[in-house]
Amino acid sequence: MTQPNIALIGAGYWGKNLARNFHALGALHTLCDASPQTLASYGDDYAAVAKETSFAKVLANPDITRVAIAAPATLHYQLADQAIQAGKDVYVEKPLCLDIQEGQQLIEKASAAGRILMVGHLLQYHAYVEKLAQMVKAGELGKLHYITSNRLNLGKIRQEENSLWSFAPHDISVILSLAGELPTDVCCSGESYLTSGVADTTLTQLKFASGLRSHIYVSWLNPFKEQKLTVVGSEGMAVFDDTKPWDEKLVLYRNYLTWTDGNVPTANKSLGEAIQVEQAEPLKSECQHFLDRCDDRQAARTDGQEGLRVLKVLHAAQSSLENGGVSSSLDTCEPCENVTIHPTAVVDSKAKLGNGTKVWHFSHVSDNCELGEGCNLGQNVFIAPGVRIGSNVKIQNNVSVYTGTAIEDDVFLGPSCVLTNVSNPRSEVVRRGIYEETTIRRGATIGANATIVCGVTIGRFAFVAAGAVVTKDIPDYGYVRGVPAKQIGWMSRHGHPLTFDTEGKASCPESKLTYQQSTNALGLQTIACQELQEAASLPTEMKTGDTSYRTFSK
Q1: Do 158 and 19 have their domain in common?
Q2: Can you give the pLDDT at residue 521?
Q3: In what order do the strands lie in the sheet with 213-219?
């Protein structure tokens, strides 16, 4: 059982919900609130929980190693700063704080002290939002076009903060997570009807370098409650409606368009597919996440950096609101940690490089690109504007990645392989902005001097032999070679050709993972990996069907 070691700072309106969940998880040591009446309102269920009105005494208690802050936002920086200095891990309700510089200071202080800093962006821990994020990352919706969010209700009406700061942080957090980038421009308009200077309703519009657009409409002056997030992509649409019964909260609409021979889109209207996940209370999941991160000392999903990104968008929106809806720019270039950039390389100011990424001789990473963690760009590599590349991607010498290409985690691009984005280029015909999209899925390998004709999708863990010319999609684990490339077999995750027996099963000689061959509804051959639970040498994350891992070493 978890040893009680958390003090909750602020036990009132929202704090009581945190108290209930931390107590249910066996972690609540102390309730701290300036109001003795608030503390006295907790019944017999909390008899074993200490009650305290002095924050200083909480910080001085060695049995308390973690604090959760549910005080007014104006106190977040002060309380979190003191807790970090006292050696406590800190969970702070949204927003992280009210000032960007103070938010950066909290991150730096927590890092220097080796403390966990987590922000309570609750929606990120909703099981259906987690599922939606997985679907987006897996490419089930295709390229994201736009995201809309409506958060409406009648009350609770605030006078100390407007509806933007009260309602929008959760939605901004989720949208930034789905987008995988910060917006370049933020525009916000609203109106104050009940209290002068406190906007009761706001509409915030976000513009992203990738072409994604989003708007967030919030109001506490609405006759009905609505909490709805709609995500529209090139391959599908998804609607998350948190007011619906659990089994109806997330609906997916696949293949919503049909394109005629004349390149004219026709809408395919359908009831949609209800997505099912196991029911769980989001706040309890969030509280458990904080406990887990304190135990394993890993960064939280909504850590200080994530909270700071949301804070930057809130400030840009507030600035736009105060200036009559005039667009406010947002600097998309974030500080890079542990990044290696050779003196001859050029990395533009608005490029975003993940922790541990290396950019070598004479390479160029353009504005508004995003590279994940642990990427390695060899000599003379060019990354065009707006390209998004996952983590642990290896791009060898003399490779250009053009706008319109999406590369997922763990992809290997061999030396001098060729990627394109226009299938019929002409020097005198300008086709800028109508680039064809190419997607290279997680774990795929492109051999040296291979050519990938634009508009195709390379499946997960597919293997393209050196010198091949790929003109059509390759399925997951597909092994192709030749000009034009033809599939000659299947390749394991560890890069070994697979030989199937009469029952359609094969085993990778290196990892001992097994694969099952089958035929899908279209009559096409597919394979799926079946992890061997008894293979003790395999990493745990490879034993449960999870494909989120990034390394395959034994």
Answers
A1: no
A2: 63
A3: 273-274, 250-254, 236-241, 221-233, 144-154, 213-219, 201-207, 185-191, 328-329
Q: How far apart are the first and last CA of the chain?
A: 33
Spatial contact of 423 and 453, defined as CB atoms under 8 Å apart: yes
In the chain, the number of structural domains is 3
Does some domain include residue 265?
yes
Q: Which parts of the chain sit beneath pLDDT 50? A: 1, 332-335, 532-554
d(CA 354, CA 495): 26
- In this predicted structure, what is the pLDDT of residue 158? 77
**Domain boundaries, position 541:** 497-554
Give the per-residue pLDDT at 332: 41
Tokens encoding 336: 């890079």
User: Does a structural domain hold residue 20?
Assistant: yes
Rounded distance between C-alpha atoms, residue 49 and residue 27, angstroms: 10
CB 353 within 8 Å of CB 377: no
- What DSSP line would sit under 386-411, residue for residue? T-EE-SS-EE-SS-EE-TTEEE-TT-
Which of 247, 245, 217, 211 lies closest to 230, judged by CA?
217
The predicted pLDDT at position 165 comes to: 92
pLDDT at position 161, please?
A: 83
Residues 111, 139 within the same domain: no
Q: What b/e sequence results for 267-297 when a residue is b if at least 16 CB atoms lie within 10 Å of its CB, and e otherwise?
A: eeeeebeebebeeebbbbbbbbbbbebbeee
Collapsed DSSP state (helix, strand, coil) of residue 214: strand
Report whether 67 contacts 91 (CB < 8 A). yes
Residues 6+ apart with CB under 8 A from 465: 447, 450, 479, 480, 481, 482, 485
pLDDT, residue 201, reads 95
In a domain, 450, yes or no: no
Other residues' Cβ atoms within 10 Å of the Cβ of residue 49: 20
| pLDDT tens-digit readout, 268-316 | 777 788 999 999 999 999 999 999 999 999 999 999 999 999 999 999 9
Same domain, 67 and 89: yes
**Nearest Cα to 97, choosing from 161, 179, 147?**
161
**What's the confidence (pLDDT) of residue 537?**
37
The sign of the CA dihedral 522, 527, 532, 536 is: negative
Is position 339 within any domain? no
Same domain? 206 vs 271: yes
Three-class SS state of 168 = helix
The residue written with tokens 């305290």 in the block is: 52
Note whether 137 and 101 are same-domain residues: no
- Residue 57 shares a structural domain with residue 176: no
pLDDT at 504: 87
